[in-house]
Design a protein that fits this description.
single chain; alpha/beta; four-stranded mixed sheet; 13 strands; 31% helix
């Protein structure tokens, strides 16, 4: 019996607002001012002027992760490593919204988890769970914390059981906490766990937003035998999806972003549909099965492939203009050919 039904009790219900959003996409959504937490997925993602502070109940960053894991185990908890940046707007959103205004999330997290913070730019020494030492920055690079905040959840043995790349709004963050605390990862994926919620994430494909650079079906994306002329961007979305509405009504309305995607073979799939797809590797499947194989649970998610059909990078959490622009620059400049690590590329560019 689960210890709590945190997710199912508190997941966002559908509203008439979502039904009207499709009619309003021709008008860009207003950018929220920093600190306005009414809408957790619609905010400016420019670097913040103020430095982020950790909640007082986070672990002190002594950075001996073996000791942190043992302390969590003795307390009957699980360990989470939080990788962040002091000016990262997505990190601020996690602290200000999920850990700042959602008392139930704070209580549940403190009851079931210990969190150790890692500064991805830090030079303090970290001793990892296998006893190896390196700087915080080196550890972050090794763990491929490409998008902050990255949260890695460990079981009592120190094995990774879940990774969240980027910021997720409260209703999905609650689900992730319960998914690990109640050990659902032993039986099913987070995607399947989310789909079993009261407000199932299965919607009408007709509700999907459109974009002028999306290519029409049929979706033969095979490029392993004969390379394509351009990279590929696959948008996995769903109907009645507020974050999808925000992406289309805001970031994709920016000329630089729209022009960037026009340089890709860009397609849109309903991640829960039975739409036939031939994947970049040549496999015949459906949109739903492919999304499941990719481990996608958040919409919208954008997965980028090169001309030969190899995945370059994916963005599968809340994303705004600034982050999306950097991702497009990384791919369109072909920087990944010299530096496959997006995080290491960012370190080299010193931003």
């Amino acid at each position: 019996m689960p210890r709590s039904s945190l997710y199912c009790r508190l997941i966002y219900p559908p509203t008439i607002v979502h039904l009207l959003m499709a009619l309003l996409l021709s008008v860009a959504l207003p950018v929220r001012a920093a600190g306005d937490d009414a809408d957790p997925v619609n905010f400016s993602d420019l670097p913040r002027d103020e430095l982020l502070s950790y909640p007082e109940w986070f672990n002190d960053p002594f950075l001996d992760l073996r000791a942190d894991l043992e302390a969590a185990r003795k307390a009957g908890k699980r360990l989470i490593l939080y990788f962040g940046q002091k000016r990262c707007p997505y990190c601020h959103q996690l602290m200000d919204v999920n850990f700042g205004t959602e008392a139930d999330i704070v209580e549940y997290t403190r009851r079931h988890f210990d969190i150790t913070p890692i500064d991805i730019w830090g030079v303090a020494e970290v001793t990892d769970l296998r006893g190896r030492s390196m700087t915080e920055r080196g550890f972050s690079l090794r763990e491929q914390a490409d998008f902050t905040p990255t949260l890695i959840f460990y079981d009592e043995r120190g094995d990774e059981v879940l990774r969240l790349r980027g910021y997720y709004p409260p209703y999905q963050f609650r689900a992730a906490l319960e998914y690990v605390a109640d050990e659902h990862y032993r039986r099913e994926s987070l995607r399947d766990y989310l789909a079993r919620g009261d407000n199932r994430m299965v919607f009408d494909a007709a509700d999907l937003n459109d974009a002028p650079f999306f290519q029409p079906p049929p979706y033969n994306l095979e490029r392993s035998r004969l390379p394509a002329e351009r990279p590929l961007a696959v948008f996995f979305e769903q109907g009645d999806c507020h974050p999808c509405d925000v992406l289309h009504g805001q970031s994709l309305q920016e000329q630089a972003i729209a022009e960037g995607f026009a340089n890709f073979d860009s397609i849109q799939l309903d991640m829960w549909s039975q739409t036939p797809v031939i994947t970049p590797s040549g496999e015949r499947t459906t949109a739903s099965r492919w999304a499941s194989e990719l481990g996608l649970f958040y919409a919208p998610a954008v997965v980028f492939f090169d001309e030969q059909g190899q995945e370059i990078l994916r963005v599968d959490s809340v994303v705004g203009f600034y982050r999306l622009r950097n991702v497009l620059n990384f791919i369109t400049s072909k920087a990944y050919l010299q530096e496959p690590s997006y995080q290491r590329w960012r370190v080299q560019r010193a931003f």
